């Protein structure tokens, strides 16, 4: 009997190890699939046009390593100007989204019986399922044709905030509900702190993981967004990086080397931000999880 149990345990361990090995192999293949486009951009950004078309998969082309693509790309797309535009729009959009969403979520969580809280939160959740493509034509028609508010960084910032605040409120709502005890606020109220001071000195610091997660998600979305800025911005002086890269695409030919260099320049800032804040992602995502 003992020998039978031992044999069954050994078989279970073998099956577990095989399953673990298969999972590792599957994840490795998935990693290669996701990393492959970035690998191609990274390697081909340092090649000339003939090497890119003739040897796209080689690490270094037959003509050697070159950084000429970067200097040409930066000059042609006016990199520092469009970089500044992207930085301004992304920074202000992200900060405003975090501030407005955290405050709105706090009011909703602490006043669950209010009809306004229920309706607002329901509207926030429902709006997340509406594709942007459904409303982009009326958006441009109203803000451009009727109000004449397009072609402005300020307009784009408030549009970014409007489209991203629903998900942020949903995340802050869960974080406040499960991770911020009401007793802390009651203690602050006994000490004479106002609701405003209580939120900024006690509640908001506890939301740092969620705020960092929202910052990463939204900053990446704002920085890489092409569709909305292309509809709002028409003046080349206020172009963002994704829109500025279109100067490399000609009617009859495209310099792939310049495109690769521009794409690499565009992804580096947001990649650095991700690496600096990545430790907050898991904590921020799980902050709104329901505790058992």
Automatic annotation (TrEMBL):
It holds the Pfam family BPD_transp_1. Keywords: Cell membrane, Membrane, Transmembrane, Transmembrane helix, Transport. The chain crosses the membrane at residues 21-42, 87-109, 121-144, 156-176, 197-223, 256-277. GO terms for cellular component: plasma membrane. InterPro entries: MetI-like, MetI-like_sf. It is a multi-pass membrane protein. Residues 83-277 form the ABC transmembrane type-1 domain. Its main location: membrane. GO terms for biological process: transmembrane transport. It is found in: Cell membrane. The keyword Transmembrane applies. It comes from the Bacteria. Belongs to the binding-protein-dependent transport system permease family. This is ABC transporter, permease protein.
């Amino acid at each position: 009997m003992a020998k039978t149990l031992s044999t069954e345990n050994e078989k279970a361990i073998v099956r577990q190890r095989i399953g673990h090995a298969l999972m590792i192999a599957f994840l490795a293949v998935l990693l290669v699939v996701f990393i492959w486009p970035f690998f191609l951009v990274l390697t081909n950004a340092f090649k000339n046009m003939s090497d890119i078309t003739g040897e796209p998969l080689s690490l270094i082309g037959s003509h050697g390593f070159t950084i000429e693509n970067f200097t040409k790309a930066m000059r042609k797309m006016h990199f520092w100007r469009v970089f500044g535009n992207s930085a301004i729009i992304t920074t202000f959009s992200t900060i405003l989204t975090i501030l407005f969403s955290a405050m709105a979520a706090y009011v909703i969580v602490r006043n669950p019986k209010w009809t306004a809280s229920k309706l607002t939160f329901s509207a926030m959740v429902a709006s997340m399922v509406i594709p942007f493509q459904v409303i982009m034509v009326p958006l441009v028609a109203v803000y451009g044709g009727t109000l004449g508010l397009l072609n402005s960084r300020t307009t784009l910032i408030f549009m970014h905030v409007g489209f991203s605040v629903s998900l942020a409120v949903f995340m802050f709502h869960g974080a406040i509900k499960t991770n911020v005890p009401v007793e802390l606020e009651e203690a602050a109220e006994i000490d004479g702190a106002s609701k405003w001071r209580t939120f900024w000195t006690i509640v908001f610091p506890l939301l740092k993981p969620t705020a960092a997660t929202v910052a990463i998600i939204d900053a990446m979305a704002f920085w890489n967004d092409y569709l909305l800025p292309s509809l709002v911005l028409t003046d080349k002086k206020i172009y963002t990086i994704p829109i500025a890269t279109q100067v490399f695409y000609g009617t009859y030919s495209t310099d792939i080397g310049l495109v690769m260099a521009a794409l690499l320049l565009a992804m580096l800032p947001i990649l650095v931000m991700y690496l600096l804040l990545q430790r907050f992602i898991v904590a921020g995502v799980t902050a709104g999880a329901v505790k058992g």
